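Example 3.2
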Amino acid sequence: MHRRWTVLGLLVLAGLLVAACGQSATPTVQPAVTPSAQPAATPSGQRVVVVTSLPLFATMVEAVGGDLVAVSAVLPPGTDPHTYQPAPRDVAKLAEAAVVVYNGGDLDFWMERQLEAVGSRARIVVLSEGLEPPPGVEAEHEHEHEHEGTPEAEKHGHDHEHGVNPHFWLDPDFGIVYVERIAEALAEVDPAHAETYRANAERYSQEIRAFDEWAKGQIATIPPERRKLVTFHDAFPYFAAHYGLELVGVVILSPGREPSPQEVAQLVERIRQEGVPAIFVEPQFNPKLAQTIAQEAGVRVLELYSDAAPAGLDYLGMMRQNVTNVVEGLRG
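Structure, written as tokens:
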């Protein structure tokens, strides 16, 4: 009897070892950004609830997801994300999301903290993760590090952990990367419609490429000596590099920090010396300082949009308006 139970026990033990080996042979696939728990697939027939940081990214999600998604943004249109303070309603919105989309870097740094606070199980998409500046664009901007580690830097999130400008989407090539990343996340949580998301992303990417060809033709009408940009804040290095424009200066070195009188005087002198035709402001910032600089330098003031496009403008609409305004301001 003792021998029979011993043999039986050995057989059971062998079965357990085989099962364990079978499990360890299956590789574990980790998402690009690991959330607090593995996200669950969206039930069939229900729209995927998506929350983005910026309204601009919500328009990308709409282009990819169409009627299959219910998307909303944390920031109201025209709000500066660098200095935004999330409200309780934002936390509640994030808690209900199946997919959360934000840029990353020092642009919407507060999103990570809010997701941790609610214990989100959403599929998290950090759009700029792993991206590097294109050739000819410096990875780090020394002026952005002047206040690193100070209370002001902590307040506005400008600690620049990696020193990389976060405004990648203003280069259409990176805009396509954003669209593709959104499509893959939607396909993951709603696999029944995966092919639809990928097809929509490809169609939208083709629209971005067609816009880009048009935009390059428009920029080519600006005389080479006038292809110079002065913007309100440092959001346009990728845009400028992509379209062959020279960034001469910015009005404010980082959001929330007013320039000194000496810095203002230096910028005015630079505009005069370089023959810059116009200054470009952004609607989320007070334009008075830029208008004063423009008046002293004798140049025009027009608008550009980066992270706070007006309500009603989707990604392509914003980019088209930017190119139109640049051509108007610089061509003369």
